[in-house]
Amino acid sequence: MVELLGAVAIFAIASSVIALTISLIVNANKDIIETSQASTTGTLIIKRIENALNDLNITDYDLISSDEVILYSDSEYVYDETSEEIILVTYNPRLELSILFNTNILIDNEIIDLSQFSLDETSTIEIISDATTSKLVITVVLVSDEGNLYTFKTNLQLVS
């Protein structure tokens, strides 16, 4: 009888250790999957912002708030295949690109997909200037359903 009681106790301890190990593995996998999805989503968001910025020859900007910036382009140099020369193209009215953070990220009023994440209120748009240069710094902070924060940042040199 004592041997049976000892065997049951050993079996219960072994079962508890196995269940705890499986639980740890499952939780670790969930964290890894969430981190991977956040990394993919954040990288795509930053790439989308950078592509929009690179498509515009920024000649001026208005920082409306830490959540909104409007970038302008008065002109740009383009290659003219007919004349085989680089020519200056002037825009009137000038081209605009707006980036806005509210509960979403909007680029020219188009909502950017955040996947299963939401935009944290600490996400910012800022202009950092010194005597010779200005830099646009965009920080995107994604928050998961579990409350984990994932930060992504991009910088762009602006006209002075």
Which keywords apply here?
Flagellin; alpha+beta; four-stranded antiparallel beta sheet; 160 residues; 1 helix; 9 strands
Please describe what this structure looks like.
- The protein has 160 residues and is an alpha+beta fold.
- The chain has one helix spanning 2-54; strands at residues 60-65, 68-80, 85-101, 105-107, 110-112, 118-119, 124-129, 134-143, 149-158.
- The protein has one domain.
- The protein contains one helix and nine strands, in the order αβββββββββ.
- It has a five-stranded antiparallel beta sheet with strand order 1-2-3-4-5, with helices on one face. Strands 6, 7, 8 and 9 form a four-stranded antiparallel beta sheet that branches.
- It is elongated, with a radius of gyration of 26 Å.
- The mean pLDDT is 89.
- This is Flagellin.
